[in-house]
Amino acid sequence: MNFKSDLFKRNALLVVLLFSDTIFSFFQHYHASLDGDLAALVLPAPQYQLVLRDPFGFNAIFHNMVYPAPNRFFSHWFITSYFKNMPFWLQSISSPLNSMYLSCAIAKTLFQFLIALMIGKLTQHLLKLKSSCVLAMVLAVPFFQASGFNISMGIIDKSISYNFFYSFPNALLLVFIFLYYKNSLINSNSARSWVLSIVLLILSFVINLSGPLNPGIICVICLTLFIHLVTQNKNGSIGLVSNLSQKISISNLLPWLTLLIALYSLYIGKNNSENLPDSISIWERYGRLPSGLLQTFTTKLGLPLLILAVLTNWVWIVKSNFTDRNIPLNLLRLIAIGIVIYIFFLPLGGYRTYRQDIIRRDTILPITISLIFLYSCTTCYILNHEKGILKKLFTTLICFIGLFFTIADKPNFSENSCEKDNIAKLASSPLKIVQLDDGCCVLSWAKISNYDDSKLNTKLLYTFNVLTDEKYYYQGK
């Protein structure tokens, strides 16, 4: 009875911690500024209208058309659909201006919770520990840095637009992996398996035709698993081919179809007009990789500490006498191989002037999520197996790590105050063209000195009922 009571108290405490962190994150996201891509994506701007009419990029295939984001339909559709509904639903309880920021905060918080939930569910099922899901989520959430270490290891970007193209597609990929794992445990001829397979097939199109990372991630996962099969196969290459051919059945076609869709997405992505025509060469991109890695690992302390925590868990498990330690160790090995392969192929993904050294928090997002998952999973494993003084010592260590990252994520609740004041000034002004304070950007990546450049932004504000008539703005003299 005491055991059940203690377990209930522990789980209740974990739920309170998770809920508190989620609420804290929501308020952090609510005070973030709006970004310079939001208006063009939501309205949408003329250049993004074709992708919304061509979900599968057939214009790129059959007509060799070059246009923005031919392989990212679902990200565009999600952000357009979301912002054409959510702000108006919220305007029954908030002002039109606040409804914009509330909509951003809700989306970011949901994306964050979904990623944490998938980390928890995968940990629970891989380790076969029923009570580990919430614990794994609590272990993961301190690493979701909205401020603090966001610049080097941010999962949820400050830019709401980036989240619809990076964190949200990655969250959906985790959902796909989890559902596929669940499906692999069921009888392939059962009705439940058929339903899950159909859901997974639909989801495979969604994840591959969303943000820029998922198709490459899926190819890396497949290559990593292939290397694993080769190294683990005891019958040589002939036996491996035989095993693979036996697995290619109707019930197991899904991974192959998902890989084909990923390759298709990468192919039509060549016709993305947003890729720089005068980009630097591939060899120069590889030459910039070391400096990108160095900058990522030295700009802030967060990512090196996360890696150190994972390595500490690895050493702890290696030195232990746990009978089933091959489960976490094989997982660590597989993900480590995948990370190396991912970094190696990263320069092939293109070049952006705002990402000169190839590696940045957005391009290494899968790596950061993988490291957080490894930390949560191996920590749950050690806590479940360790006993006595060593368990108390380990618990103290992980509490210190969680507390350190929580304190480091210091909020800035005045971050968007200047932007909100400027928008309120624009809304209340009787003038057609309004000069705004130049202390911050307003729905833009840079300060707007020519009022013509504000037309798309003010159209969005008018659409959200923030403005009652057509106005424009500029900043500076």
Structure summarized in a few sentences:
This protein has 477 residues and is mostly helical. The protein has helices spanning 2-30, 38-42, 49-53, 58-62, 73-83, 86-90, 96-127, 132-140, 150-153, 160-165, 167-184, 191-208, 214-232, 236-247, 254-268, 282-299, 302-319, 326-345, 365-385, 388-408, 417-428, 455-463; strands spanning 433-436, 472-475. It folds into two domains: 2-408, no CATH class; 417-475, no CATH class.
The fraction of residues in strands falls at: under 5%
Per DSSP, the total helix count is 22
Q: How many individual domains?
A: 2
First-residue to last-residue Cα separation: 73 Å
Outline type: globular
Q: What percent of the residues sit in helical stretches (DSSP H or I)?
A: 55-70%
Q: Biggest sheet: strands side by side, in what order?
A: 1-2
Largest sheet: 2 strands, parallel
**What is the mean pLDDT?**
90
